[in-house]
Design goal:
- The protein is mostly helical.
- The protein folds into two domains: 99 residues, no CATH class; 46 residues, no CATH class.
- The protein is extended and about 65 Å long.
- This is Reverse transcriptase domain-containing protein.
Length: 204
Amino acid sequence: MQSQGDLFERDYHELVQEECEIIASMASQHEITAVTLDELDKAIRNLNTGKAPDIHNLRAEHLLYCDSDVKQFLLVIVTKIFKTGQFPHTCILKEGLVSQIFFNERFTNSLYKLPWYNHPTSHREKYESVLRTRIAPFVEQSQNKVQRGFTKGSSPANAAYVIKGLNRESKDSKIDLHLILLNARLAFDVVDHGHLMRRMFQQL
């Protein structure tokens, strides 16, 4: 028998899914701005160089130093993907070279107990870079000024000043302070991305 908490989570998730469908319907009615060559160039320059090739044997350097004709061809493909929301069958985004890593100094004799890392393809990183560049101005406008952990070029250690101030304020006011810490490096492996997209839509 499901608990009240489980029932609440199920009902809430269903409501979020319904709202996501409405948001998707609203978004489909808006004209998507075509990707410009400047956006594509910036996205390519943001790719991490010096890394191993992906499953297509492509490196970031291939895109960084490709001919202008190749960039024009890529621009057509990227713009088509943005406008239709569909990826070509040959454009693999979720597959990659899988390699094993040692995480948090955890060593074990069992290979199955070690985490695995899936190297993303150059295709996926390119699209993500264009999207990040487009939404950055909107995110900066709505982002809380004291939120520093996810801010580019800022250390999460800046949060220590905020926490210290809150702790002092709670003691002076004799109010209990409940501090919840999020391990963002692990949390997004299990979070429902539909909930995140819905929240982002509400904020922007």
